[in-house]
Design goal:
Blueprint (H helix, E strand, L loop, with lengths): L9 E9 L8 E9 L2 E6 L9 E4 L4 E4 L1 E6 L7 H7 L2 H17 L2 E6 L5 H8 L7 E4 L3 E3 L25 H4 L3 E3 L2 H15 L4 E4 L18 H12 L5 E7 H10 L3 E7 L2 H9 L3 E3 L20 H10 L3 H7 L3 E2 L9 H18 L3 H8 L1 H8 L23 E4 L29 E6 L2 E5 L2
Parallel strand pairs: 1-4, 1-5, 6-7, 7-8, 9-10, 11-12, 12-13, 13-14, 14-15
Antiparallel strand pairs: 1-2, 2-3, 5-16, 16-17, 17-18
Helix pairs in contact: 5-6, 6-7, 12-13
Length: 444
Amino acid sequence: MRLHTEKPEQTLINNVNIFDGVNETLMQGASVLVEGKLIKEVSTDEIDAPNAIVIDGDGRTLMPGLIDGHAHVMINNDYGVIERDSDITDLSYNAVIVMERFLMDGFTSVRDMGGPAFGLARAVNSGLLIGPRLYPSGAFISQTSGHGDFRDRADPGFSYADAGDLSNFERMGIGTVADGVPEALKATRLNLRNGATQIKIMAGGGGSSRFDPIDTTQFSKEETCAIVETTKDWGTYVAAHVFTDRAVNRLLDCGVRTFEHTFFISEETMQRIAAEGAYVVPQMWGISPDLAKNPLMPPAKIPLVQELGKEYADFGRNLVKNGVKVVFASDYVGVNADAERARRYEIWWRTQTFDSNFEVLKQMTSVAGEVLAMSGERNPYKEGKLGVIEPGAYADLLLVDGNPLEDIRAIGGQEQWFDAPEEWKPIETIDLIMLNGAIYKNDL
C-alpha cells in the first residue's frame, strides 16, 4: 500500500536493528525519531516523543534508502525503437512507471547519467510524480564517432559537411555531439542552464554503440579540461563514461571526479584514482557471463565483451584492494523488464564480485551519498546527508524483514537476470519505504 500523502510532523520507529550505511555492525534494539524531512534522533535508549506517530519495527532491519549512482530513466526502450519510432512523449510516459518502480524497489535517490530527465526531477520535487530524488546530468556529451553518436550509418553520409542530420537521441536531449572546445563548452553550459547537477561526458568507446570501438579514447585533453573548468565554474563536477588506462589518466589530468564503468584499467590507475579522491561507478553486470544474453548488445561485440569479462574478473576485488571508493550502478537502460531484472541481478552479482555484502551496501548508501553531495551548489538537497542514518540526515529509510548484511535477497538481490520472470513484482521483504520523511509503502 502506498501512502505518499502520509507525512506526519514526527514519526518514531521503535524496536529496530540499524544498518547506518557506514558500520558493519548493526545497532541492536534502537529507535529513530523523524521530524519533518530529517532524522532528529537515533538512540538505543527510549526516545521521548509523545506526539509522534509510532511504528513498531518488531526487530526488522532499518537502513538508509538505496542510491543508484548511474541510471538512464528516460532511455527506457530499445535504442532502435527510440531512434526510429519514438518521441519524447513515449519516453516520458514510460518514465513515470520507471520512477515509481525505482522507489518501490527501495531506491530513494538516483543519479541520472544521460537523458532529458529535468522535467521528471521537477515533477518529483513538486509532488506531482512518485519517484526517487533525481540528480540529472542532461544530455551526455560526446564527440563525433563517440559513444553518444547514435546516428544510423547513412545519416552523416561521407562528408562532415553533410553531418547536420541529428539523431533522435540528440533531438530529444538524450545526447549531444560536440567537437572542439567552443562546441563542448556550449553543450556543457546548456545542460547547466537546464538544471544539471553534474555533467556527463563520453570519454571512450562502448559496448552498446556501433561505431566506436571500446578501446578508443574520446575527446582531446583540451576539450576535456575545458568542460571540467566550465563545470567547476558552476560549483559541480564532471563524470565520464570510460574503460581504459589511457582515457582515465587523461581525465584525471583534467580533474574528472567519477569514472563510470572503467572495467579494463590497471591497478596502477586504480591507485591514482584512490590517491586523488575520485570514485569509480561500475555496473558489474558488464563483466558478468550473463551479459551475452542482453538484447541491446550488438552481436559483433559479444565475443570481445565475453573475453574481456574473463580477463578482468577480479576488477571489483582489485578496486577494494587498492582503496578506491566504489558506488553502486545499475546502468538502468532499455526495455523496462530487462532493466528492472538487471537492477536486481546487479545487487546480487556485486556480492559475488566484491565478496562482501557490507561493501555492496556501503556502495548503495553512504559512499553513493558522498558522490551526490559533490554537486555542491547545484545540489538541490542540501539540508542533510543522504545514504546514512544519523541525526540531521534526510529521512530516506527502508524497513526490511531480514538482514541484508547476511542475505542480499532481503533488498531484492536475485541470482537470475534474463532468466528471471519479466513481470515486475514488489519486493516482499521491504515492508516500509520512507522518502523525505513521507511514507510511500507500509506493509506492516
